[in-house]
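[step 3/7] fold_predict: job queued, chain A
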Amino acid sequence: MTLPRHVLPGRTLLVTRRCFGRLFLLRPSPQVEAVFSYCLALAAEKYGIQVHALVVLSNHWHGLVTDPRGTLPEFLRWLHCNVAKALNVHLRRGESLWAPGSYSAVHLGDEAAVLDKLVYVITNGVAAGLVPTPGEWPGLHTLAEDVGTRVVDAARPDFFFRQPVLDDEADRDDSARARRRRREPARDPLPDRARLAITVPPAFAAMPPEQFRALLGRAVDDRVAQLHRQRAGRPWLGAEAVLRQDPFGCPGSTAPDGSLNPRVACRDKWRRIELLETQVEFWHEYRQALARYRQGDRDAVFPEGTYWLRVQFGVTCRAAA
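[step 4/7] structure written:
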């Protein structure tokens, strides 16, 4: 059992999800970009999520988002579920698309952490040794100049999602699936198009947008220059080689690298300590309330930010301060 998530409205987070076995199931292609951009735009609108940056690499994706309503788990459930179903149809496979377990969501505790992770997302393909500049990544991605200016306009893919059907066509279709659908309550098809605005993070809302993009652009350029110095003498894989990858291939090693799985990122030392103490206090109060609930005390009060038990079982949670 994983530790309970502390889901509070208004947080800005770095979200990551990997593919099953680190397979290249998200390898850039028109179908992958169409599915992911369409599902992301619909999920963001449905759950009120603000998207500030994203990159979809061959075997994982990163997104920097703000969660105004405290609905991040539902947003990611809807997104990952529909992306998996659609891409499994496209790839003609029936296994899990995503790695076992759950997603990573790192709470960004100050402006410096938000800027750092924006740079991290934008330069992720460069850091992985795939392309020499962020703009050369052939898959779905955002750049510094996109933040606050770009609107992703995604059309509904035609190989998976329910399409509008004319009445005479529906009457002529005598397949078992069509007969079953005629017996079911009518369901409206998903919209023809979905739009996703790439917005400026709330931490920088007071800064003029042009000034923020200039600040972000300089930070991205500095990071790219640093990565080039680190890779001196080593070649880049290149966009053409990325596009030739087998979707069912994977990196040379899929073993866990033993790196940390943080819940919080913050450049300010004391602010980071405060956030970590808040997280530990949440887990402690949650365990105490869960123990009382299991003993039959249905009036046990769970800490603010309890998500799954509140949504699934309606437990009482402490009101926000």
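[step 5/7] annotate
The domain at 11-267 is CATH 3.30.70.1290 (Alpha-Beta Plaits).
Strands lie at 11-18, 50-56, 60-67, 104-108, 151-155, 193-197, 264-265, 301-302, 316-317.
exit 0
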